[in-house]
Structure prediction request, 203 residues.
Amino acid sequence: MSIRGAFVLAVVGVCLTALCACSSWTNLNDLDAKKADNPAAATAAGTGSETTGSVVTQPAESGHSLPPAPLAAPGLAGDDPNDDLTRGKRYFRANDFGLAEKSFRAAAEKHPRDAEAWVGLAASYDRLRRFDLADRAYAEAIRLIGPTPQILNDQGFSYMLRGDYARAQRTLHQAQVKDPSNPYIKANLELLEESYQSGKAVK
Prediction:
């Protein structure tokens, strides 16, 4: 092989190496950006979990989809682990709906533009069987961000709690059209069918 030919091969090899390095760097930066934007999705990418939107998809239980995907605008409630919104979620998960209602109500009063606080408040009212107040809280959340799949799902479950199966079905189907892969909506539709067939009210 001539010296010129060897030189050309060496240059091509260097270029290919640089190209691979650039591609790897770009992919790593994309992953880092995804981690920054969505830590849950980045974690799922490493573990093989599926993701739906910004929430890692897990086997869903029926009911309210609390804790919801982030609904609040940046800088509103939810940044401090000891704020009212975070406490409300913690109480809700522990089935202490009275304290959850107080915390979410305080969060909504301090941050009236925070839809997440209103959704949590509505879900708490549902569990306390204060459906009149739940309707007002859902209406406020919808006024702020529109009828999202999560809000429609929670409203559908609210109607199930009241035994209004026709309205629950309409609302849950609207939610499913907006987000066909949402596991909470699917679980609630299954629960609705079971409750309707058995004639037993949802508790």
Q: What stands out?
A: Residues 3-51 form one domain.
